[in-house]
Specification:
Blueprint lengths: L15 H15 L7 E2 L1 H8 L3 H13 L3 E4 L3 E4 L4 H24 L3 H20 L5 H15 L3 H20 L4 H19 L3 H21 L2
Antiparallel strand pairs: 1-3, 2-3
Helix pairs in contact: 1-3, 2-3, 4-6, 4-7, 4-8, 4-9, 5-6, 5-8, 6-7, 8-9
């Protein structure tokens, strides 16, 4: 293929549909749109100041990701998450989180450790201050950092999808403060193994973390 010197890469500019998608997805993740909540596309178009076309595009994309559902005569709503679905999520996490942590340990550098330790410190501070609402986002940031460190986009995307489902489930089945302290301790074990560059230990720690959360969030319900 002949390189064209004049064909410079265009700057990344998000479309209106992308911006609407990002906004709705964030609202679902943060709990502003809770599971089962109705989504009125006409109202969204007015609120965003756009036509219905980008709203429809965003809704279709969110439906394909399982975040919204559309039913005849019932309209569009935020998808519910039940315990049975969560079992599938944690089965997937058992495989993916172990793989992610192991790969992150193989590619560890000072920047990754600093990032993970910073998140851990922020989680401890939130617990000490009773700011439980900050913990889901920080937990997502922890696992996102590990997934990004692998260098594989598909692993980052799968991790993001699983974390989103878990965050939505926790809106209706919140994690108690004592379990959050267990989460932080389990993260510490993962960080120690990653820092040492021990791929096997990191994978084992990640799977142990998933198993512990499965017992708390699925098996106990």
């Amino acid at each position: 293929m002949v390189e064209k010197a004049w064909a410079e890469r265009l700057p990344a500019v998000k479309s209106k549909a992308d911006l609407v998608y990002d906004s709705i997805r964030s609202a679902i993740a943060e709990g502003h749109l809770r599971p089962g909540a109705k989504v009125n596309m006409d109202e969204l178009a007015r609120d965003f100041g756009v036509s219905k076309i980008p709203v429809r595009e965003a809704v279709k994309r969110l439906e394909s990701e399982g975040l919204l559902v559309s039913r005849v005569h019932a309209g569009v709503a935020v998808a519910e998450v039940d315990v049975n679905e969560m079992r599938g999520v944690f089965l997937a996490r058992d495989a993916i989180d172990g793989l992610v942590a192991g790969l992150a340990a193989e590619k560890v550098d000072d920047a990754l450790i600093a990032e993970l330790e910073g998140i851990q410190q922020a989680m401890r501070k939130a617990l000490d201050e009773g700011a439980i609402g900050r913990l889901p986002q920080l937990n997502t940031a922890f696992h996102r950092s590990l997934a990004t460190a692998t260098g594989y986009r598909i692993l980052a995307e799968l991790t993001e999808q699983l974390l989103m489902t878990i965050r939505r489930y926790r809106l209706v089945a919140p994690v108690d403060p004592m379990n959050w302290r267990s989460v932080v301790a389990e993260h510490d074990t993962i960080v120690s193994a990653v820092r040492a560059g021990d791929s096997a230990a990191a994978a084992e720690a990640a799977r142990a973390h998933t198993a512990a959360q499965t017992r708390h969030e699925v098996d106990d319900n």
